[in-house]
């Protein structure tokens, strides 16, 4: 199966310069760290709120117990992926923020001699995030 284009980084001529991130990510609301994971599709870097492009994850304050349990697992998976080492992120020039003011970013890890590792694709492959189609998925 072909990789979803929404999970790939945007072409260089359509995107911001890649930003290298090398930080330890804790859990927001739990750890007092400058970098933290809010849920399976959102993170914080200092005062910046960043939403990963192309995926939707269950909400920590979800509508049912099943969604809240999946949200905790999804956030833990994202935390694991982000803490696996430095990664890069960039934004499309024409869509840098969502309607809530969060920065929209593609995240990936370069792997010399192999294709880049899309963090969004890894979240989808884990089953703890779904393709984002402009509206929230139902997790209950």
Structure description:
There is one protein chain. The chain has 140 residues and is an alpha+beta fold. It has helices at 65-82, 119-125; strands at residues 19-21, 26-27, 35-39, 42-45, 48-52, 55-56, 87-90, 103-109, 117-118, 130-131. The strands form 2 sheets. Strands 1, 2, 3, 4, 5, 7, 8 and 9 form an 8-stranded mixed beta sheet that branches. It has a two-stranded antiparallel sheet with strand order 6-10. It is globular. The mean pLDDT is 90.
Sum this structure up briefly.
With 140 residues, this protein is an alpha+beta fold. It is built from 2 helices and 10 strands, in the order ββββββαβββαβ.
Topology:
Layout (H helix, E strand, L loop, with lengths): L18 E3 L4 E2 L7 E5 L2 E4 L2 E5 L2 E2 L8 H18 L4 E4 L12 E7 L7 E2 H7 L4 E2 L9
Parallel strand pairs: 2-3, 5-8
Antiparallel strand pairs: 1-7, 3-4, 4-5, 6-10, 7-8, 8-9
SSE order: EEEEEEHEEEHE
Mean pLDDT: 90
Total number of helices: 2
Measured as a percent range, the helix fraction is: 10-25%
Jot down its keywords:
single chain, 140 residues, alpha+beta, eight-stranded mixed β-sheet, 26% strand, globular
